[in-house]
Amino acid sequence: MTTMKDIAKMANTSIGTVDRALNNKPGVSAKTRERIMAIAESLDYKPNRLGKALVLRNKNMQLGFIIEPITNPFFEELKRGAEQMRDALNEYGITTHIFCMNTHEENEMVELLDRMSDMGVAGIALNAINSPVVIDKLVKLRESGHRIVTCSTDISRGYRDCFVGFCHEKSARVAAELLAKFTGKKGEFLVTIGYRYIMAHMQRLNGFESKIKEEYPGISLAGVLEVEENDEIAFRETLKALEGNDRINGIFIAGYGIKGVAKAVEVKNLGRDIKIICYDNSAFVTDYVKKGVIDAVICQDPEKQGYMALKILSDLIIGDKEVRSDTYTTSIDIRLCENIDKDIQDWDI
Known about the structure:
alpha/beta, 434 Repressor (Amino-terminal Domain), Rossmann fold, 3 domains, six-stranded parallel beta sheet, six-stranded mixed beta sheet
């Protein structure tokens, strides 16, 4: 199906310009409008349902999005996707407030939820912290009519309308299979997570552990380190684990702290003797893959997650309908040295 993004690409212009041209809005020259209309016709473009609904209803609506600290590159990319959808919705008079947290603390998230409620938002997307105080706040928001979409990391189904993210348990089982094959199906594996209260990290840990126990009797777990999404803590704790156990030959990084773990392996000068699998590509991850320190990366397309979370939230509110499923997940994308530089597969906007 042809999208505005396809037309913008062919016309060498922005999605906003395409939207204004197709909907006969001001701010586009006659020449540009004519060119865009011709491209749309040649591609057999059909306007999307959301756009039509927004134009017809002309609602002055506000949405909210709470994102974890963008010191983690994953959330920086997720924010970029949310901003794309924010800009598209803005063309129809829908205002989206995006707030990035300064900490991983539940109290800060509750304060932001209260702030958005006071601002009058109709719905909120968020990287949810799976804690009683956050869940209690979300329950109250839903009872007052707010729509809730969790993104990247989830909470129990009864407390939100939809989850947009990744199949964390399945991806971790894939990681366990890869790491087992990389190491000859024997040895001891170390696992690092960010926080135990982040459901995504616990789902990855559970998936990894279950796969190892089910299929690889020659492999045991050397330990699970909670590194608080902090490279310094990850470096210190990983180094301590490596110094205390020379049988560790595999590391599964189930959260952030990648740079700290990789640095610890370099300091021990073990190189390829220890196989490492982590999540989410970035410039420094690419460097470590090319140097042979990190062996595989599981990518989950955070930009698409941010975009789709806000899109589904707006569908729920503007469309006055339930989404087809309460879960939307991106594909598991495995990167090795040979394909670490490839662009993330294009997706419809």
